[in-house]
Structures
1.
Amino acid sequence: MNQIIIHVDMDAFYASVEVRDNPHLRGRPLIIGSLPTERGVVATCSYEARKYGVHSAMNIKEAYHLCPGGIYMHPNFDKYKAVSRELHKIWNTYADAAESIALDEAYLDVTLSAGSWEKAREIARTIKQRTRQELHLTCSVGLGYSKTAAKTASEEKKPDGYYEIPDAQAFIALMSGRDVRSLYTVGEKTAEKLHKAGIQTVRDIRERAGEVIRMLGKHGEWLVSLSEGRDERRVTAYNPQDAKSISREITFQENVDSTSFLKEVLLLLSLCVENRAERVGLYGEGVTLKITYADMKTITRSRTIASTRSAHVIYRECTQMLDQIPHHPIRLVGAGLTRLSGDENRQLRLLDVFGVEEQERTKAITEALSALASHYNLDFAGHLDQIFRSDTLYRTIEYMRKWTKVKG
C-alpha cells in the first residue's frame, strides 16, 4: 500500500493562543517575540500583523518600523508547551506513527489506521474539527502521498485550510510553474544559486536535472527527486537520543565586555544544559562555547571531554575557552554538549563508580551558584528549576547585567 500522510500545522500558533486567552487581542496586529525596545526577533505574529509585512525571524526593530501600532508581547513558552501537549494528544490518536516537528506541527502516518484515501480524508477533517472544538484553535491540514506532498498541501490554503495531493502527478501539476523557493529545503542561498543559473521554477529543476546535480551535489539530487514528485521518507517518531547537541544561549540587550559577568552567565547556561541532558537521558563527549560579537561575527570553540552531562564540567570548559578568545564586546553567549549518547554507551571511570568525582562536582557548582546568588541578591533555594524556563532565565540574566552596569 502507498503511504498516506497527514501534515498538521497550527495557524500562527503562539499568537493564536494569546488571542484565544485574551479576546481583546482579536483582529489586532499581534507580534510575539522581543519588545520594540529590545534586541531580538519576531517569533511569530498574527495574520493581521503579516498584512504589514511582518514575519517570523524578522528583526524586531524592522517589525516595529513596519507596524508601529502593533501589540508586542514576550512569548509564554510554558503555556504554549501545555497547549502543544493537548494538540499532539488529539492528533496522535489517529496515527500509526507521529513525527512532531515542533510544538505546533506534526506528520501523521495514517496508512494502516485509515486504510483508504477516503477514510484518511475523514480523519484529516476530524482533526481540524476536534482542534477547533476542544482547544478553540485553528490548524491547516494537508493530506498527501508523501511527507513533502502533505506539507505542501497544508501550506496551500492557510489559514484554517485543507488541501489534498493524492499522487506525484498532482504534485507536479501544482508545483511545476512555481519559483524554486516553493520547493521543500530550498533556502535563500540555494535559490540565489539556481536563479543565477537561470533555473527559476520547479519545472526548470526537473528539466535541467543534470545541471542542478552538478551545481548542488547531493542536495541537487534531492531537489530533482522532489521536482519529480518522489519522496520515500517515512514518518519517524522523534527520539530525544537522536539529538546531535544540547545547547542554551542568551542574547544581551546591550553588549557585554565583562569577562567575569560572562562567566556567571555561563554558569546558568551550563545548569540549563545539564538539566536538559538529564531529562532526555543523554551524556556528551564534547563541550562547545558560542560567541557572537557586537559586529555580528560569530565564533564557536569546542573541546573533547570524558562522557558527562555535569554542569560543572560544561562550565569549567566553557570558561577556559572564554579566556582564550579575543576580548571584544559580546552580544550573545552560548554553552552546549555535543557527541551525545545514552546511558548504555557511557564509559564510567572508577571515581564515577564510587561517586567521589560527582560529589566534588556537585559541591563546586553549588558553591559557585551560592556565590552568584549572594553577589546579585538572588534566591535560588527551593526553586532553581525556574531558571530553566526561557523567560525566567532571560529576566534573571538581564537583571544581573543591569545590576553589573549600575555597580560598575
2.
Amino acid sequence: MENIGKTFPGVKALDDVGIELYGGEVLGLVGENGAGKSTLMNVLNGIVQPDEGKIYVDGEEKEFSSLIEAQNSGIAYIQQELNLIDELSVQENLFLGKEPLTPFRTIKFRELFKKTQEVLKSLGLNISPREKAGNLSLAKKQMVEIAKALLFDAKIIVMDEPTSSLTDEEINVLYKLICRMREEGKGIIYISHRMEEIFSFTDRISVLRNGACVGSKSTKEIDHDGLVRMMAGRDVEERFFKEETQTGPVLLELDSIHGQGKVEDVSIQLRKGEILGIGGLMGSGRTELLETIFGIFPPREGRLTLDGKPFKPTSPYQAMDQGIAYIPEDRESKGLFLDFSILANVSLTRMEKDKSLYNEANHRISIDRVSEKLGIVAPGLDSRVENLSGGNRQKVILARWIHAGMKVLLVNEPTRGIDVGTKTEIYKLLYDLNKQGVGIIVVSSELTELLMISDRIVTLYEGQLSGEFSRKEANKEVVLQAMTGKKEMVTGTG
C-alpha cells in the first residue's frame, strides 16, 4: 500500500501511509485507538475508498470497491466487530454467497455440512454446523470468523483483534494456525493491543500514529517500552495498580442465586467503594451472572439485596431505576447505537429516568463536561459513535452511566480491544468512581487485569463459586487453580 490518504468530515484518518507485506510473514500493525489501523484495513478490503494512494497485490495494481472484490483477489478480513448474521446457521454464515450448488442452482447441504465440520474440527470447535450464529458466545463467533478465512484459501489474511474474546486455549489454537499459514507462504497482517501477542506472533511491526506510519521494525529489533513509545509518541505508564480504598458497608448482596444458564447457588457481597473482580474460563457463567443482576435474565431462585433492601429486578429498566449500571462485553451490538450521536447515546438512560423533565440544552452542558472529563476524542457531541475508536466507544458507555448516576457498576471486559494508554485511563476512571462510593463488579478474561484493579477476586467454575481471594492473597497461580475447577472452595490462604 503506497501513499494512502483518507479524510472523513473533520478528521484526517490516514495521511500518506505506506506498508508492505511479504509472503510467509506475519506483520504486526499497531497503534493507539484512533491511529488509523482499522481505516487502513478497510481501504485494503474495499470497505472504504481512499482519497489517494495505490494498492498492489503480487505486483499488480488493484482497486477494490467492495469486500467481495478484495476477497476475489485473495484477501480475507477477520474484523474486530463481527459480521455474522445471527438468524443464519454457522454453515450458512461460512459459505454465504459461495455455497456449493447443484446444476439446478440449489444448495448442496450435505457438502456444506461436511466442509463446515472439517474447518470447525481444525479449530478445535465443538459446534454444530447447523447451530444458529445468534446462539453462540462472542468467543465462538470470533472463531467462526477465523474459520471463514481458512475456508477460501486466502493468500493475505488480515486479523483485527482476533483474540479479544478468546480463552488462552483458543489463543494457542490460533497461534498454531498462524504458524501453519506462514509456513504455507501466506501473508498475515495482525492487529492487536496485546503486546505479548505482538512480540510472540509477528516477524515485523509497523506503527501508526495519528493517521501516519511512523516506522517499521523487525520484531527482534525493538522491545516493549520502545514500541509503546513509538505508538504514543511519549512514555506511557501502562501498568496501573489500584490503591486500596476504604470500603463501606455491604451495598449489593447475592444470596444463593440461581440464574441464567449454569449460574447455580452463587452468594457474594459487594461493598460500597469496592472493585470486585470475577474470574473464570469461558462458559463459567461470568456474563450470565452480570445479566442476572441487571435483570436481563431474572434469578430463578435466591435473594438479592441492594442497600439492605430486597431487590429482584425483572428487567433492565427496573435495575437501572435502582441505580444498577451495566457495560456489556459486546459494546457495539448490546451497548451502543452506532448510528446515533455521542449526545444521543449518553442521554438515553437519563432521558428514561427524567422523562418529561428532560431538557436537552441543560443536559448538553452536563454531557459536555462528562465527555471532557473522560477524554472522549471526537469533533463534538453530535459526532456519530460509529466513527469513534474502540476506546472512545467504551468511554461513551461509561459517560452514559456517570450522567445518569449509579450505585453499582457492572463491567464486562472493560478494556477489550483497547490500547495500552487508554487502558490506564479506563482503570483510573473506575478507580475515581470507586472513591465516590460506587461499587464495581468487573469481569475480565485477562487475569493480569483482575489482579491489578481488584480489591477482591471471586472465581466461577461451571456456574458455581470456586474461590475467593483478598487483594493480598490473590496471585496468578491460586486464582487460576480456582478458575480451572478444584473441587473444594479455594482461598488465597489454601
3.
Amino acid sequence: MNLLMEDMVKSFGANNVLKGVTFELKGGEIVALLGENGAGKSTLMNILGGVVLADKGTVKVDDEVRDFLKPLDSLSAGIAFIHQELNLVEDLKVYENIFINTELKRKSGFLDIPLMCEKCEEIFKRMDVKIDPKAMVRDLDASYKQMVEIARALMMEAEMIIMDEPTSSLTEVEIEQVFYMMKTLKDQGVGMVFISHKLKEVVEICDRYYVLRDGAMVSTGDIKDVTTNDLAKFMVGHEVRTENLQRERPIGEEILRGENMSLKRCYKDINFSIRAGEIVGFTGLLGDGRSELFRSIFGGTTDYRGQVYLEGKKIKAKNPEEALKLGIGYLPRDRKENSIVKDMNILENGTIVILPKLKKGLLIDRATQREKFKGQVKKLSIKLEKDTNMIGSLSGGNQQKVVLAKWLLSDPKVLILDNPTQGVDVGAKEDIYDIILELADIGMAVVVLSSEALEVIRVCDRTHVMYHGEIRGEIKGKQMTEENIMRLATGGELSESGEKSHGIN
C-alpha cells in the first residue's frame, strides 16, 4: 500500500497551518514526521485521519484519489491513528479493548470469547509479542498498552499506522520492545509514520524523514544521510545547543535530605542530600523507584520508613497540600494525566496552587491572579493568545511551562521535576533547561528525575543512578557519561577512575 499527499493546504481563520505540503509513505517503511509544536504535523495527519478537511490538495492511496470525510473513511482505507493519549479502557480486558464495538458473537447471540481470544493471539503472534488476551489493561506496562492499540489497528486490517509520540512515556526497556515490534511489522509490509521529538530514536528506527516548520516542508531525505543535530537544525531553523549546561554558582545550605528511606517493592535504604542552588539528578531504568521516592516526600504516601529533613527539620507530609505548605513543589511525569486540568483555562491551570492565597472572603481576587500569572508568562516566555483559552489550545511545550508557572508561583524551597521535558519539542526543551538553570542561580534546590541520560548530563551538577530501588552510585563531572549511567543503571559498578570494574551483581 502506497500513500501520497500532494500540495496540502489548510488554514484556520487567518492562521495558515499548511502551505502546500507534500508527504509520501510506502508500505514496509518507517517515515519520521518532525517539527516543533505548531509546525503543522498534527493538522497534516488529522487530514489523513479524516478528522480535518483540507482546503486544497489531494490524497492518493495506491494512485487512487481518496476523500477522507470522517475517521471511518480513513480506517476503511487501511489507515489507523495511534494517538499519544492511548484510547484504551483500563477496566476492560485486552480482548475486550481490541474488539470493542466489533464483538464476535455465537449464533445464540452470546459473545464468542474463545474466538476473540484466538484472533488476538493470532495478531500478537504476527507482532511477535506475548500478551494474555484475558489480562486487564490496567495491569499492563505502558509499552504493552501501546501494542494493544496497534493490535486493534491490525485487527481492523490497517496497512498504515500513524504513531504520535509513541515513546514519550516509556522507559528505555519498553522503547526497545516497541521498536522490535515496529521492525517486525515493517518486515511484513506495514507502513508507519513516526511522530516524535526524540531525535535519537528517529535516527535509530526510521528510514526517511520529513521536517515541517511554520506549515511548510523544509527538508526531506534518507535518515542515513543526516545526524540528530541536522534534524534539530531543520526543525528550529538554526543551530541547537548540544553542550553541557552546568555552570559554577554559589551553593548554599542543605535544603532537603533523606535518610534510610524505604518503601516496600519501590525503593530501599535511600540516602541523599540537596543544597540550595544545586541541580541534582536521579536517573535509571524501568522500576528504579525514583518517582515513587519523591512522590513519598511530596505526600503521595505516608507508609515509608526513614526520615525526611527540610532545612534541617524533620518533616513527613501527609498529603501534597501539606507538602506545598512546607515549601515543596512537584511537577509529575505525566503532564496530561497528573499536571493539567483539561476542563480549566490557561489562567486557572497556571494559578491553581495559589488560589487559597488569592481569596477575598468567598471570592478570588481576579486582578491579582491575572497579574501574578502575567509575570510568569513573561518570565517563562509562554506563547498564548488569551489566558482565558482552554489549556488544550497550547502546544505541549507551552503547557509544560504553564505547569512550571503554577509551581513557581508557590515559591517553593525545593522543586522536584519528574521528566520535565517529556513530550516537548527541541526549542521548548532548551527553554525549560534555561529555566531550570535560572532557578538554581537564584538559590532554589532543584531535583531532576529523568529517564534520559543526556538530560541529566546536560543540566545536573551531580546525578544519583538508581537500580532496582537502590542508589547504585553518584556521579559528577567527567564521570557523567551515557556509558557510566547505563553501567550503573544495569547493576554494574565504576572504579575510582570511572572505568568498568569486573562483575555485575
